[in-house]
Write a structure and sequence with these properties.
The structure is a single chain. It contains 7 helices and 14 strands. The chain is α/β, with parallel strands linked by helices. It starts with a helix and ends with a strand.
């Protein structure tokens, strides 16, 4: 489904608050191989549920009312999250999510599908369900509920994460969002990518002149990474 069908009438950040690009680090090994190619070939992304992510504190919050607990749990079951980073040169992300620089990093243009993305707020304090007036009055909106999924521990701050959030996903196929032309602007090959994988990626993207292919290189004179 197109993103506008999910976000019709929902608020988004002002264009001045949005970055121009966001980045998705991807592996090319085991189960991730077919999923990564699916993004590039079929131009679609899959939004997993909160419980499928790697942070054990995902969506954690302090409940003050049982109705709040029930509402959030019900909401989370139909929630989809697509995580991205603000930067393409974070070494830890290349190691954790792109198999030690053997994977790729997909660059997204934020002006279309990803204009609904929101930044993560990093904090040492778990979000309190009594912090918004809507929750105090039991009249929670989608954005109030989203706030639980836009808060993470400061220990994750190095990821500089942004998220595309979608609700009311009732089955597996609902979790696929089809991208628009121009959403993918570049694919950055990892510095340690297998030559066969590099050849395959280049072959897959050969006919798509809208997607640039770049490569991440390790700088020999400093700890910086170079994308070229």
């Amino acid at each position: 489904m197109n993103i506008k069908a999910y976000h019709h009438g929902w608020s988004k950040l002002d264009s001045s608050q949005l970055p121009q690009k966001l980045y998705k680090y991807r592996s090319l090994y085991e189960d991730s191989f077919s999923k990564t190619l699916d993004v590039l070939i079929n131009k679609r992304i899959y939004l997993p549920a909160p419980w499928q992510l790697n942070d054990p504190y995902e969506g954690t919050h302090k409940y003050h009312y049982e109705v709040t607990r029930n509402k959030v749990q019900e909401f989370s079951r139909t929630m989809g999250i697509y995580s991205m980073s603000l930067i393409a040169t974070i070494p830890q992300l290349w190691v954790h999510y792109a198999d030690n620089f053997r994977g790729i990093c997909i660059e997204f243009n934020v002006s279309k599908t990803f204009c609904y993305a929101k930044p993560i707020i990093y904090s040492n304090d778990i979000l309190n369900s009594n912090e918004t007036s809507c929750m105090r009055q039991m009249g929670m909106t989608h954005m109030d509920l989203f706030s639980f999924l836009l808060r993470k521990s400061s220990g994750w701050a190095y990821e500089k994460e942004w998220r595309l959030l979608i609700s009311n996903l009732n089955n597996h196929n609902d979790r696929y969002v089809y991208l628009e032309n121009g959403d993918i602007t570049s694919v950055i090959l990892g510095a340690n990518i297998d030559p066969l994988h590099e050849e395959l990626i280049r072959m897959v993207l050969k006919e798509d002149i809208t997607i640039n292919i770049q490569k991440c290189k390790i700088c020999e004179q400093s700890y910086d990474m170079i994308i070229e």
